[in-house]
Automatic annotation (TrEMBL):
Protein name: Uncharacterized protein
Similarity comment: Belongs to the glycosyl hydrolase 35 family.
InterPro entries associated with the record: B-gal_1-like, BetaGal1-like_ABD1, BetaGal_gal-bd, Galactose-bd-like_sf, GH, Gly_Hdrlase_35_cat, Glycoside_Hdrlase_35
Beta-galactosidase 1-like first all-beta domain span: 440-551
Length: 675
């Protein structure tokens, strides 16, 4: 793993700035590795202690005279990093937070993805892995302060930047604006979420020192001097870069957060250090902060902030840490990411990975390892120890060593067998049957958020000479798998392959399985509708009379299918195209974390014991393995494997379970493919 030297030098420089401003260099005695539970009136780890007869009133404010922040009346410093509970299984939360604490950090930054908690309008889920209150309370139990970032927009390379896909049921909605339909949905969500947050605010005896609406940077530092990360409430996120530039929207958010959280919470915005972006992204009553990377001109960047905020602390967010783990269309090898804001990245399970768009649609990988101090599986890296060393020079560390990596296990080769072609089990996957339409309908039009839909029509005439089956530009969202008379013809792909040649007889069945690979999480083209957004044509003649099958694959698999179903006798073993494969394996008395590789497979989705582990795509890379948390596995009974392979599995289908991940390569460069 490559060490981020620039990041470490920047951390040291900012901490030295704190020392110059009057902070202690040695930080006092070391802390115990057993973290204290935060209590009302108790000092947080790293906070200054002032002897007194009674606990002071809990407060957090900006000192405009001294350009610093004060917690309970004294200068305050925190060191924090991000952990996204939505990307970590609940049973691993304690492990990840303990390692963050052991590294010397005293605060954790936490996103709240709106779409993770409100899958349908007015339907909320705060159970299991989605129990954000339990995560916040666990952080408090472990003695960690919290910087909360509840959206409504978070970016984070998360599906649609955290906004629910059902917002697009209204096709003309203007997201992140004062559009009445958008504001009504935001208000309804915030009136559910923020009452859960208010009792946990620092001012009310909790551990949340900052409630931010949006995303900020990497391991962040709050110093009593220049370079502080503002502990307040961030309204929106880099809104100045968004085309709408709607001050009424920011004003509405300001009023809503004030009404629901009270007047004492600090509110602020974060934007790129450009005057034009600061103009659109700031508002009177919100403290304006900036973000920039380690290669920026610091003087010029802070000059942009001073243009908007003549007084107050100079505040930077280490943004510009764009995740680089996108699937590639070439054989170029890239790293899965680089450290910018994540202390621990985790995994984009199921369909939660978002997408980038810079001239071309680029879906984010399932792994969100991010080259962070803690790996995707939660193991400490060289980078973590280097950061811990830097922190130790300026503030106390917990006593004792860093907890060792959790055990990993190579379960080895597991044989699978083909259960059925997808086209032969539509009765199970789409129990309500197809929707009839003259022309194709989008995912949003039929109210399906994620996954797959099947579009079916028939050839209108004999086609003896191959004709071009094509789609209008930007209408394949995101990848289509074409079958004619159940024979796989090839793929159509967004911003790439938009046509292929077919031939057949009048009345032959044409099927196109459409895959949603994640909605764009940043930029002006934010309303990322999915499915067939335009009609397919044969040699420029539009096709019509479509049957559209919404596919509830996850619902079927979570109910035990296909392992509990009767075997399909008509299964064509060697046929390419979308098909389901099944298998089982057992653990040797304990369920340890593992990594699964797909030798000879093409692209698809993996479930183990009904849990959707995400998308594999070894041909594109750079990710070659999927992380399998031990909490997903069973002990004492078989673990069921279900694979949806979309293009073509090997003739002898096997999976290989390893005790280490494989990143940074494509299938043709992987030596394990020869095993």
């Amino acid at each position: 793993m490559v060490l981020s030297t620039l990041g470490l030098l920047l951390a040291a420089a900012l901490l030295r700035a704190e020392v110059a401003a009057g902070g202690r260099r040695d930080g006092g005695p070391s802390r115990s590795l057993r973290p204290p539970r935060l209590r009302a009136g108790a000092a947080a780890p790293g906070a200054a202690r002032v002897p007194q007869a009674a606990p002071p009133a809990r407060s957090f404010r900006i000192d405009f005279e001294r350009d610093c922040f004060r917690k309970d009346g004294v200068p305050f410093r925190y060191v924090s990093g991000s952990v996204h509970y939505a990307r970590v299984p609940r049973l691993a939360w304690r492990d990840r937070l303990l390692r963050l604490y052991a590294a010397g950090l005293n605060a954790v930054q936490v996103y709240v993805p709106w779409n993770y908690h409100e899958p349908q309008p007015g339907v909320y889920d705060f159970s299991g892995d989605r129990d954000v209150e339990a995560f916040l309370d666990l952080a408090a139990e472990l003695g960690l302060l919290v910087i909360l970032r509840p959206g409504p927009y978070i970016c984070a390379e998360w599906e649609m930047g955290g906004l629910p896909a059902w917002l697009l049921w209204k096709p003309d909605i203007v997201l992140r604006s004062s559009d009445p339909a958008y504001l009504a949905a935001v208000d309804a969500w915030l009136h559910v979420l923020l009452p859960k947050i208010k009792p946990r605010l620092y001012q009310h005896g909790g551990n949340i020192i900052s409630v931010q609406v949006g995303a900020v940077g990497p391991v962040s530092r709050c110093l009593s001097g220049p370079g502080c990360i503002l502990p307040g409430l961030q309204v929106e996120n880099e809104y100045g870069s968004y085309y709408a530039c709607d001050s009424s929207y920011l004003q509405h958010l300001l009023g809503t957060f004030r009404a629901l959280l009270g007047p004492e919470v600090l509110l602020f915005t974060t934007d790129d250090a450009q005057v034009e972006e600061l103009r659109c992204g700031t508002l009177q009553g919100l403290y304006a902060t900036i973000d920039f990377g380690p290669d920026s001109n610091v003087t010029e960047a802070f000059g942009a902030q001073r243009h908007i905020e003549p007084r107050g602390p100079l505040v930077r967010h280490d943004g510009k840490g764009w995740f680089r783990g996108c699937h590639l269309s070439s054989r170029r090898v890239t790293a899965p990411g680089s450290l910018r804001y994540m202390f621990h990245g985790g995994t984009n399970f199921a369909y939660w990975s978002g997408a980038d768009f810079k001239g071309q649609y680029k879906p984010v990988t399932t792994s969100y390892d991010y080259d962070a101090p803690l790996s995707e599986a939660g193991d400490p890296t060289e980078k973590l120890y280097a950061i811990r060393t830097v922190i130790s020079k300026f503030q106390p560390l917990p006593v004792g060593p860093m907890p060792p990596p959790t055990p990993k296990y190579a379960y080895g080769w597991v044989a699978l067998h083909k259960y059925a072609d997808l086209l032969d089990v539509l009765d199970v996957l789409s129990p309500s049957g197809p929707i009839q339409s003259q022309f194709p309908l989008s995912f949003e039009a039929v109210k399906q958020a994620h996954g797959f839909m099947l579009y079916r029509t028939h050839l209108p005439r004999d086609i003896l000479v191959p004709a071009m089956l094509s789609a209008p530009p930007h209408s394949i969202c995101d990848r289509g798998y074409v079958m004619l008379q159940k024979e796989y013809q090839g793929t159509l792909e967004r911003d790439s392959q938009t046509g292929l040649r077919v031939k057949g007889k009048a009345g032959d069945t044409l099927d196109v399985l459409l895959e949603n690979m994640g909605r764009i999480s940043f930029g002006a083209n934010f309303s990322d509708f999915k499915g067939l957004l335009g009609n397919l044509s044969l040699d420029s003649s539009p096709l019509s009379k479509w049957l559209i099958y919404p596919l509830a694959i996850d619902a079927a698999i979570q109910q035990g299918w296909p392992h509990t179903a009767m075997p399909k006798s008509s299964c064509s073993r060697g046929r390419a195209g979308p098909a389901f494969y099944t298998g089982t394996f057992e653990t040797p008395g304990i369920a340890w974390d593992t990594f699964v590789k797909f030798p000879g497979w093409s692209k698809g989705q993996l479930w183990i014991n009904g849990f959707n582990l995400g998308r594999y795509w070894p041909h594109r890379g750079p990710q070659q393995t999927l992380f399998v948390p031990g909490s997903v596995l069973r002990v004492g009974c078989p673990n069921s494997i279900t694979v949806l392979e979309l293009e073509g599995a090997p003739l002898n289908p096997f999976l290989l379970f390893l005790d280490r991940p494989l990143f940074n390569r494509t299938l043709s460069h992987s030596p394990l493919d020869k095993e």
